[in-house]
Predict the 3D structure of the following.
Amino acid sequence: MTRRTIFFVSDQTGVTAETMGHSLLTQFEDIEFRQVTLPFISSVDKAEQAVRRINATGAADGLRPVVFSTLVREDLRTVVAGSDGLMLDFFAAFLRPLEGELGVKSSMREGRAHGITNRNAYTARIEATNFALSADDGGARAEYRRADVILVGVSRSGKTPTCVYMAMQYGIFAANYPLTEEDFENNRLPTMLREHSGKLFGLTIAPTRLQQIRQERRPDSRYSSLAQCEFEVLRAEAMFRRFSVPTLDTTEYSIEEIASRVIERMGIERRVHP
Amino acid sequence: MTRRTIFFVSDQTGVTAETMGHSLLTQFEDIEFRQVTLPFISSVDKAEQAVRRINATGAADGLRPVVFSTLVREDLRTVVAGSDGLMLDFFAAFLRPLEGELGVKSSMREGRAHGITNRNAYTARIEATNFALSADDGGARAEYRRADVILVGVSRSGKTPTCVYMAMQYGIFAANYPLTEEDFENNRLPTMLREHSGKLFGLTIAPTRLQQIRQERRPDSRYSSLAQCEFEVLRAEAMFRRFSVPTLDTTEYSIEEIASRVIERMGIERRVHP
């Protein structure tokens, strides 16, 4: 298998460069990529250091590296463009057409895409994250009225990471409620949930996958037995049907995909954009 | 202030399109952007629906929308390129040069950048997220030996969101320890922390900013008084110096920036890439 080194060069965190790079690299399945982030390249001096590192890697690999750049400053881009690597320059490709369309010059300042550009948006994300954590696992039930959505499902069906992701990425207030043995015995959703029936969204999962996940957590327990997983999933799905709770099977989906689908199906407004 | 509508069109979650779009839009400070995500555009039918929506918005706004596309399939890209909007096509701009460099054709399959492309990487992120949550606020102290890094600081200095972000984005195992009154009285770090001194990283914050944050949480309490904030921050900073804990002032930084700087200064390896 070929192995290529990929550099993400940014004047700030490098998150945008990583995201766009990763998105492209997943299109090439038979190549192994070594990924190196070079963040905070904010001076000519640092840009020259980055170039030396890129060139040294190219020499060692015997193949030229690929360089994803989200550098904004013209002088820094010129320096990095002079490396031996293949430069894929995000701002060069998109900033000019955008300037033309918007009829203004960009500020050409160092990227603040992942900085505190907007104190309100930033606070919204932090508040939403704290909300997701405090309203985790049925905690702070009184808070359900503040929730944009309440994810319901059995233990380890993906509720908590999805809530945290929606909070951090979009400032969405997401609570979650883990279905318990008691709920299954009563065969109904607890009253405090039924009061918010319009906010409920059910996560379900294939019992065999659930077993794998639980097995890692508490090996060879009743909790991680296939029989228990099957029982809980069946009961949960029956409950979702009975109370008309929209559901999603999370078995084959990542957190980002679950989040996007919940947001779309529930028609939730993103409070902030990443 | 001018107002423009921006569409993020994707065959999957739209996270990449949102990230790249946002990164460019922050360069234009005097324009108000309305941002609309159109995810899961995975058929010609849906692409045509998207085009109708883009065109209707353009007609209503009286200004043509900007369309950030991360569509991979040629047929879908052709449909969306036919809208009245300005199309900024991520794959068209970068996939070709990358194919040339790597000497192979891309799979041209629908993006799985934010899907479960790699079950191990995915599991690492989920495990790290669960770790961050269970090792939050000094919980599960026995787990410190599994941590890649332990963030130390006063309440509301940014520890928890940073830990969760590093876990979710990079699969990094990050624990946190909130400094308590008891620690300040003893004027030392607890033994269980000192056993892991190589993993400690201190977060500090301007007392006036801390007060604002705490004020939102518990208004007009001792906890949110400026005197208390000043006392705690001074004591924490003295402790960091005394035990040679590297520190970062988080006052002006976003979670992404704090995370990137912690990773860089501690030399932590990213387990996965976003």
About this structure: Chain B is about 45% helix and 15% strand. Chain B touches chain A through 80 residues (CB under 8 Å).
